[in-house]
Amino acid sequence: MASQTQRRSTATRSTHLRGLETTATYDPATQEFVLNSPTVSSIKWWPGGLGKTSNHAIVLAQLYTQGNCHGLHAFIVPIRDMSTHVPLPGIVVGDIGPKFGFQEVDNGFLKLENVRIPRENMLMKYAKVEPDGTYVKPPSAKLTYGTMVFIRSMIVGESARSLAKACTIAIRYSAVRHQSEIRPGEPEPQILDYQTQQYKLFPLLAMAYAFTFVGQYMRQTYHRITGDINEGDFSELPELHALSAGLKAFTTWETNSAIEVCRMSCGGHGYSCSSALPDIYVQFTPTCTYEGENTVMMLQTARYLVKSYRQAKAGQQLSGIVSYLNDAEHRRVQPQPVAARPTVVDINDLTSLKEIYKLRAAILVELAAKSIQQELQRRRSQEDAWNNSAIDLVRASDAHCHYVVVKLFTDKLGEISDTAIHSVMSTLALLYALHGITKNSGDFLQAGLLSVPQVMQISVRIKELLSQLRLNAVALVDSFDHHDKILNSVLGRYDGNVYEHLFEWARRSPLNATEVHESFHKYLKPLRSKL
User: Fold this and answer.
1) Higher-confidence residue: 186 or 349?
2) pLDDT exceeds cutoff 80 at 88
3) Measured between alpha carbons, how far is 206 from 198 in angstroms, rounded to an integer?
4) pLDDT tens sequence across 174-207
5) Long-range pairs for 450-455: beta carbons < 8 A, 24 or more residues apart
6) For residues 48 and 171, which has the higher predicted lDDT (pLDDT)?
């Protein structure tokens, strides 16, 4: 069976797709495309399986036909001979060397030197090149990014799965591990009984559930909009592109940090590969940079948000997830002082909390848009105005994504009919929303959405929620249903027999194959004989 890889990144460009330099020039005389990597910076870099395994690649290249460039298009390019596996003429391919993780994957480089492929090897579901070289435009320019949108949507789900694994290991181990004393003379408690351990892990558990529901939503939304596209409706594609980019960045950044918190919460044993947490981290952390570097992803989302804000300000009625920008009442840079108006926020009501997350997002989008406008009034170029407002733009995107996650978690509760499950899920959702406020309290206070006493009240409420979740914490991670063989973690074993198996795991270390290591005979023994 042919092995195939997909390739977009180059040695110097991975996120800025329009800047890719690989060319595919159509030759009508032979009805072939001629592919070239004209510069060192155009060499394809990073595709998994390309180094030594794949024999075909889907390559994005700038399409030239009849003397005109028509931007990026995808082409199926044979890489190696199907019989001998030797690279084909014009193909320079190999492995890029050791990485932070994924050492078992042969990420590769690819240089194309006058490689000819049949016209039919261009992926032509939408855009086409006729035999005579005539170019047929796609119905929407954004269709080029369809695969990236799909993968980014899938990464959101992967964030949930990786975080769920890390939480499962850390919480199970915290229920097994006993440490110190809370009260003198009493037995050592489980470390999960310590409030500080709960504060580390339970908000992450809530986040794992939140991201699980967001991942489900993204998958369903992608398939729904793909169905619309197949019917010729491209209206929701820009929002899907913006949402997938932003949530990809938001969930991977949060999960990447959370996995490390889980590792540290397991103490020294978390650093051991027996915990599986180092492996989870090194396998997950590249998601922050592949399929689009996260800051750039946030800026792509921001571009859509600013455009939507301007449309709403001009009187256009927005639909979809950005419809909250329609409300002109909240388009203000300077909110009223808190003392000037009563703040009617019930910190125990998720609908009320969802509303202030929405208002925070709307205000930060407005601040970013007005920052750009102020830069333009100083006679900056559009590009400089954008760059000089980039910090505000990323904050706006982050707030937008945070609102979407809170909204989707809250909405999901309406689908749960079982009273007991609804109760514990509501506690998790409330913890996620309140913990997010404490981490971003400056935004809510500056905007006048909350008062200082309310923020202090939230801190007290979070402690109560931690205590409520303690009883169900292990059951909540068990419900992720990660089998021991999948977790591959001594610390996160379902049966809790950690220390017996930790000793067995250590005994199996290759260094323990002999009682005396060969280095003793090779180095130490000869050295001692000379003393």
Assistant:
1) 349
2) yes
3) 12
4) 999 998 877 887 888 999 999 999 999 999 999 9
5) 450/343, 450/345, 450/356, 451/338, 451/343, 454/343, 454/345, 454/347
6) 171
Q: Which residue type sits at 86? A: V
Confidence of residue 232 (pLDDT cuts 50, 70, 90): confident
Amino acid, res. 298: M
Say whether 188 is catalytic. no
Q: Distance (Å, rounded) from C-alpha 56 to C-alpha 77? A: 6
Q: Which amino acid is at 408?
A: L
Mean pLDDT of the chain: 91
Rounded Cα distance between 204 and 97, Å, is 34
DSSP letters, 436-479, are: HHHHTHHHHHHTTSS-HHHHHHHHHHHHHHHHHHHTTHHHHHHT
Write out the E strands in 46-107.
56-65, 68-78, 91-95
pLDDT of 211 above 90: yes
Q: End-to-end alpha-carbon separation of the chain, Å?
A: 62
What secondary structure does DSSP assign to 120-179, as a single string?
GGB--SSSEE-TTS-EE--S-GGGGGHHHHHHHHHHHHHHHHHHHHHHHHHHHHHHH-B-
Q: In this predicted structure, what is the pLDDT of residue 54?
A: 95
| C-alpha neighbours within 13 Å on the C-beta side of residue 431 | 28
Q: β-strands 135-136, 128-129: how paired? A: antiparallel
Task: Give the type of residue at 486.
Answer: I
Packed helices 390-413 and 419-439: angle between N→C axes, nearest 10 degrees: 160
Instruction: Compute CA 195 distance to the chain's CA centroid, rounded to the nearest angstrom.
Output: 29
Task: Give the single-character DSSP code of 285.
Answer: G
Does residue 18 surpass a pLDDT of 70? no
pLDDT (tens digit per residue) in 133-151: 999 998 877 776 677 788 9
Pairing of strands 44-45, 108-112: antiparallel
- Give the DSSP letter string of 296-344: HHHHHHHHHHHHHHHHHHTTPPP-GGGGGGG-GGG--SSPPPGGGS---
Alpha carbons 367 and 352: distance in angstroms, whole number: 23
Quick one: tokens of 329? Answer: 């009442």
Task: Write the CB contacts of 514 (distance below 8 Å, at least 6 apart in sequence).
Answer: none
CA distance 2 to 146: 23
- The catalytic position among 32, 158, 239, 291 is 291
Q: In this predicted structure, which of 12-26, 228-242, 437-451 has the lowest mean pLDDT?
A: 12-26
Asked if 18 and 72 touch (Cβ cutoff 8 Å), the reply is: yes
pTM greater than 0.85 (yes/no): yes
The pLDDT assigned to 259 comes to 98
Structure tokens at 462: 């979070």
